[in-house]
Specification:
Largest sheet: 9 strands, mixed
CATH topology of the largest domain: Rossmann fold
Strand content: 15-25%
Number of helices: 9
CATH architecture of the largest domain: 3-Layer(aba) Sandwich
Distance between the termini: 16 Å
Number of domains: 2
CATH superfamily of the largest domain: Vaccinia Virus protein VP39
Radius of gyration: 22 Å
Order of helices and strands: EEHHHHHHEHEHEEHEEE
C-alpha cells in the first residue's frame, strides 16, 4: 500500500497505522440510545454516591450536576463511546443547571430543538454527524482529482465548502453534492448559485447512484462504511476512485493513504475501485 503526504508529494511503502478515529467506533449502536444510557447511568451513580458519601450535595444542584457529569463520563467510557463524546457528557448536566437558572422564555427550547433538527436532521437514524472538512483537507482532495475532465460527487456535502473550492480550482470538471440536512443544504445551494460547474442536491445520498463519477468523496462515520463499501463495489466503474476522510472501509486496506498536515492529523483513505470487488 502507498502512503502519500500531499505537502511532500512523496510515496513510501511504510505500513500505515491506525486511523485517528477507530473504524469500529459506534458500529452497530444507536448513538442517541448510547448517549442517553450514559447520562442515566451517570445520574444513578451520582445520586447513589451523594446519598451514601456526601448528602450535603443534594442541596447543591450545580455540585451534584458536576458529579453526575463525571459519572456520565465514566459510564460513556465503559460503554465504549468515542472519546469526543466525553466532554459533552461532562458538561451537559452542569450547563443544563446553569441555563435553568437564567429563567429563559419557554419558547426558546422548542426553537432550539427545531434549529438542531434543521442543522443535524436525523443523525440518530443515519449515524452520520455533520463533519466539515478544513482548508488543508480540501487541498489534499483537489490533488487527488485526475488531470483530465471528470465528474466528482460529495456524499453528505454539508455546507458545500469542499465542492466550492474544487469547482473553482477545476472549471473543466463537474461537481455534485448531496445533503439531507435542510439548513446545511440551503447554505450549500445558495453558495453554489454562482458556480457554474457545481450542483447541490437535496436528499439521501444512499438513493443516488455512484455510477458515472470518476471520484467520490465521503466524510461519514464508521457506522456507514460497510454499506458504503458495498455500494461503491456495486455501482462505481473500474478505475474510479473513492476518497474517505478519516474512516476506512472495514477489513479492506486502502490503495493509498494521504496524511494531511492539519491539527486533527487527518487521513484520507483512497480506494481504486476494481468493479464487482468484494471484501
Amino acid at each position: 500500500m502507498r502512503r502519500l503526504r500531499p505537502d511532500a508529494l512523496c510515496l513510501t511503502t511504510e505500513p500505515v497505522g491506525q486511523p485517528c478515529i477507530s473504524p469500529d467506533a459506534g458500529v452497530g449502536r444507536n448513538p442517541m440510545l448510547s448517549a442517553l444510557a450514559a447520562q442515566i447511568l451517570g445520574a444513578l451513580l451520582a445520586g447513589l454516591l451523594a446519598v451514601l458519601l456526601a448528602p450535603r450535595l443534594l442541596a447543591l444542584p450545580l455540585a451534584l450536576a458536576a458529579l453526575q457529569g463525571a459519572c456520565a463520563v465514566l459510564a460513556s467510557w465503559r460503554l465504549g463511546e468515542p472519546a469526543w463524546r466525553l466532554p459533552i457528557h461532562a458538561l451537559f448536566m452542569p450547563l443544563a443547571v446553569l441555563v435553568h437558572g437564567l429563567d429563559l422564555p419557554a419558547w426558546l427550547w422548542p426553537a432550539g430543538l427545531v434549529m438542531l433538527l434543521l442543522v443535524f436532521w436525523r443523525t440518530d437514524r443515519s449515524q452520520v454527524p455533520l463533519f466539515l472538512s478544513n482548508r488543508l483537507c480540501r487541498k489534499a482532495v483537489l490533488d487527488l482529482l485526475p488531470a483530465s475532465p471528470c465528474r466528482v460527487l460529495d456524499l453528505g456535502c454539508g455546507d458545500g465548502a469542499l465542492l466550492r473550492q474544487l469547482a473553482r480550482a477545476r472549471p473543466d470538471c463537474r461537481f455534485v453534492g448531496i445533503e439531507h440536512a435542510p439548513l446545511p443544504w440551503c447554505w450549500a445551494w445558495l453558495s453554489a448559485s454562482n458556480v457554474g460547474n457545481l450542483e447541490i442536491r437535496f436528499g439521501d445520498f444512499w438513493n443516488h447512484s455512484l455510477a458515472g463519477y470518476a471520484v467520490v468523496h465521503a466524510f461519514l462515520s464508521p457506522a456507514a462504511m460497510p454499506r458504503l463499501a458495498t455500494k461503491a463495489d456495486d455501482e462505481m466503474a473500474p478505475g474510479a476512485r473513492l476518497v474517505s476522510n478519516s474512516f476506512p472501509f472495514p477489513d479492506r486496506q486502502p490503495d493509498a493513504v494521504v496524511d494531511v498536515t492539519d491539527r486533527r492529523h487527518t487521513r484520507l483513505h483512497v480506494y481504486e475501485l476494481q468493479g464487482a470487488r468484494r471484501s
